[in-house]
Design goal:
By secondary structure, the protein is mainly α. Helix content is 43%, strand content 10%.
Amino acid sequence: MPYSGRRASAAHTGSPLSKRDFAVGSEYRYLLDDQDFNLFMQSVRRRSEDSALGLLRRFGVLHRRFHKLPKQFARMTTKRAKRFLLEMIDDFETKGGENGEELAGSYIQDYVKAVNRWLQHNEIPPPRKVFAEDADQSALYSNEVPPTPTQLKDILEQADFRARAALGIVAFSGIRLGILGKKKRKGLDGLKVKDFPEMTIKDGKVEFQTIPALLIVRKEISKIRRQYTTFLCQEGCEYLKTYLEWRMNGE
């Protein structure tokens, strides 16, 4: 299966934007002109916009690199789909990314999962036992280690008030970085003052009724789509207090 470095031509039909169009600005938005694929993507978007954008990007890469549109996958038999996936894996593993960089097995496997998900949506049994080499390993995180307490202290000391508060919340409460601010269909959503129910603000002063302070992660910003609670220790509360008071007093 040859790899073409040029972009496959994208025929934009000028479909109108709607309130449900999560892909504004994406170079692969033209794929949503396929009504069946658009309905599929909207069903994914209802659960997670991040997942939907990731799927759209993968199908865009498949179109650009292998000249396959979603509707072509939807017409494949299981046997034909398996052959394509095996050829795709071989191409990715042999030639790497668009700039020749080596691709992690888990990265390649995400493309297999994307195609299989679309096949299932079209009631086509996805092929079994199709795996990239080291599909369960991620090169992105394989060498990562958490910072030591000394390293974390150095980072916090060099950060400004805003960054220190954000880093403190993530480091000491255990929440994901995306919880602080997450792009949603209706705009940006993330942690709010109301999510710290034991924190009070009066006359430009911030106080915590109890420490560790309760932190509520709402369903709308939770990756697991369920509300849950965690706590922020005294050091994290101090960073948050300093930042909020600095903001209220004119920065």
